[in-house]
Amino acid sequence: MNTIHLRPYRPSDLNNIIQIFTEAVHQLGIKYYSPAQLSAWAPSEPDLQRWGDRLESMVVLVAEQGETIIGFIGYNGAGLVDLLFVHPAFTRLGIATILMQAVEQLAIADGVRELETKASMVARPFFESRGFVVIAEETVTIGGENLRRFAMGKTIEPTH
Description:
The protein is of the alpha+beta class. The chain has a single domain, classed as Gcn5-related N-acetyltransferase (GNAT) (Aminopeptidase, 3-Layer(aba) Sandwich). 33% of the residues lie in helices and 34% in strands. The protein is built from 5 helices and 7 strands, in the order βαααβββαβαββ. Strands 1-2-3-4-5-7-6 form a 7-stranded mixed beta sheet. Strand 4, helix 4 (95-109) and strand 5 form a beta-alpha-beta unit. The longest helix is centred in the N-terminal third of the chain and has 16 residues, at 14-29. The chain is globular, with a radius of gyration of 15 Å.
């Protein structure tokens, strides 16, 4: 595998980010969610303004291989991990782990000791492998469809 490097999100990344999100949701989520749920979660015509505003409201790191964005993660600076997605062609290669480790280091530097996330059924095993525990099972309604997800949390400690 070629070297992966992380960098901050740029507004010019928006379309690539949305494409990764959409492909990951539809290709990886089919095992857990119905086609109608997937289409509500990742519609074929996304709201670009909403996406842009959301990404600009947090710290977003993108993982690149060469010049190609292959994954991304969002972090709000107060412990919420949001939008961890890797392109389906690059799953199970440690990309999500690299992104998560970077956010954990940012959180520690920010003085945060508790991380939380809202994990889909697809993402739950990954977060559990990183030490997150399920706090509550939730149902969220998106586009008229109910989707199951998990509120998860993890305590982090500075490394010495």
